[in-house]
Amino acid sequence: MNILQEDAREIRRVAEDVFPEFFVKNNLKWESNSRVKRLVKEGKICESSVIDKTQTNNFPNNAATVRMRHVSSENPEATIHIRGEAKQRTYSSLPSYTWTDVPVLRITIDPERQELIFNGYLDVNMIDMEEATALVKSVCEVMSNGN
């Protein structure tokens, strides 16, 4: 690791200490894969923000989790899963039933087509569209190869 990578990691650690509400509020996680491991080594993301590979319904609530596809390509596709807080819902018709609802907004970044694809719905108590857009820009910046 070179001095610049060490400095980048130290700056990120200090920023997390000084501005914890920013990092807690955004709560960005990365699902583990070979590309994410490389980004950790490069100091672009913190090791503590990496989660084990899992099913999307097991991604953490009240967090945004990035899953990449085609990780060996120059510009992999990424989907940001923004999961809100789980809430109990009840359908009151006969027979009534209750289920757990978790709002999820998925934003797919497709660099080949230069598209953003939105699917799902947003928990506005957790994040608004302006913050979601900033999150997309942040993820793109981290994933870029300096292009």
Description of the molecule:
There is one protein chain. The chain is an alpha/beta fold and 147 residues long. The chain has one domain. Helix content is 31%, strand content 29%. It has helices at residues 3-18, 20-26, 34-41, 129-143; strands at residues 28-31, 50-51, 63-69, 77-83, 87-91, 97-101, 104-110, 115-120. The strands form two sheets. A six-stranded mixed beta sheet has the order 2-1-3-4-7-8. The chain is elongated, with a radius of gyration of 17 Å. The two termini are 22 Å apart.
Brief characterization of the structure:
The chain is of the alpha/beta class and 147 residues long. The chain is built from four helices and eight strands; from the N terminus they run H-H-E-H-E-E-E-E-E-E-E-H. The protein has a six-stranded mixed sheet with strand order 2-1-3-4-7-8. It has a two-stranded antiparallel ribbon with strand order 5-6.
